[in-house]
Amino acid sequence: MYNPLAQYETLEELKRNYEWPDPDWWDYSGIPGQVKGKDDRPIRGGGSEPFLVYKSLRGQWQGHVDLVRHPDIVHYCLDKLFDLAYENTRRIYEQIPGRVMISYIAEDLGSQTGLLMSPAQIREFLIPRMKRVIDLAHSEGAYVFHHSDGAIMQILPDMVRAGIDVLNPIQWRCRGMDRKALKRDFGQKLVFHGAMDNQQTLPFGTVEDVKREVVENLRILGRGGGYILAPCHNIQANTPPENVVAMYEKGYEEGWKAF
User: Fold this and answer.
1) Where are the alpha helices (DSSP H) in the chain?
2) Residue pLDDT, tens place only, 211-236
3) Torsion angle defined by CA atoms of residues 113, 119, 121 and 124, in that order, rounded to the nearest 10 degrees
4) Nearest Cα to 228, choosing from 147, 112, 111, 135?
5) How many of the other CB atoms lie within 10 Å of CB of 181?
């Protein structure tokens, strides 16, 4: 509805006027009951996406301007948001020790044509803080599922070094996100999740177009394993139902051949 921190021009002003959430506000005791009887399913819990929250607090435009004009505000707020995410994640693990398989550690870093901020800014503001949550996930035996839309090839080596395990959503039509290059350069280090294009193929392609893309993805990204077939983001409302059915049916039919 509005951006509650957009009005503040200085860090001192923000500190005086905003109360940050405390993890004690949440009750974690119901988590064991949520996973009871689901031993046959992967369990996802914990993680972070604080810069997305920061932009909601400050505003989309202001959030990016702050990286240049108000880095002190960005550092302060991200410390608060990452601390909350870290403690939230830790308390989830504490409730169900060894049960969480996947933790979602994300930031949308890319547009259709390139990064939304400079690599230097990503390395300064985000990666060290993300790595802290990544290390926590790994210490509990969880895999790190990293979501970042768009053209992120320029920063992907840094994310791999930080410890991500799964990359989503593989928007391969974006600049530089060639599937063959992704598999060649990162196939031994990452599991790829997604890659079924939901900007063109799924909403506007034919059933045959969808089937063809399924086969391409399995052949390129699934060669030797390490690929989970899925839409490259949420299936949009203008997607014909027959295309959705075709994607999954063709995936079941052809998936085993990729291995």
Assistant:
1) 11-17, 31-35, 50-58, 60-69, 71-95, 119-121, 127-139, 156-162, 179-186, 201-204, 207-220, 241-254
2) 999 999 999 999 999 999 999 989 99
3) 150
4) 147
5) 13
Both tokens assigned to 26? 């949440």
Burial of 178 (0-12, 13-18, 19+ CB in 10 A): middle
Which whole-number Å values give the CA distances from 182 to 87, 195, 222, in the listed order?
A: 33, 11, 11
User: Of all residues in the chain, what percent carry a pLDDT higher than 70?
Assistant: 99
- Tokens 């503040």 belong to which residue? 8
Consecutive H or E run containing 102 = strand 102-105
Q: 3-state DSSP call for residue 114?
A: coil
Residue 118, token pair as written in the block? 């400079």
Helices 207-220 and 241-254, axial angle in degrees (round to 10): 40
User: 94: which strand partners?
Assistant: none
Q: Tell me the C-alpha distance between 211 and 247, whole Å.
A: 6
Give the pLDDT score at 258: 61
Q: Rounded CA gap, 28 and 24, in Å?
A: 9
Pairing state between β 44-48 and 191-196: unpaired
State how far the alpha carbon of 107 is from the alpha carbons of 44, 78, 185, in Å. 17, 12, 21
Give the C-alpha separation, 188 to 167, whole Å: 12
Residue in this structure with the two tokens 């550092």, named with its chain if needed:
75
257, pLDDT greater than 80: no
Q: List the one residue out of 2, 20, 29, 125 whose CA is nearest residue 71.
A: 125
DSSP of 43-64, one letter per residue? -EEEEE-HHHHHHHHH-HHHHH
